[in-house]
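QA checklist item 7 of 12: single-chain prediction sanity check.
[x] sequence parsed
[x] length recorded as 121
[x] structure emitted
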Amino acid sequence: QVELVESGGGLVQAGGSLRLSCAASGSRFSFNTMGWYRQSPGKFRELLATITRDGTTTYGDSVQGRFTISRDNAKNTLYLQMNGLKPEDTDVYYCNAKAAFLATGYEYDYWGQGTQVTVSS
């Protein structure tokens, strides 16, 4: 089975920085595209950034130029460097992974439990 564990959330002042990490485990799986999302209660989940296994990245308009997504394939770990944080960035941040079962090649969608990021003004 696959497990995604996020860490690095917390409280930061506006203009500050945080680095989120997502440790992925699952020896029978290959982690393909991974990404970061955020969601508040009652709102749609917002795509922030994605990264393919070979490092191709995409960003949502709201974080373009402020957030940087990266990954370490050897460690199966995903990162999100967040700079210039704003109060409106306050949310629960989720890690997502498209993981292919090595035995069949079928790809499945997995989510972490979320980590709270709070930006004070």
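[x] summary fact logged: The chain has a mean pLDDT of 96.
[ ] second reviewer sign-off
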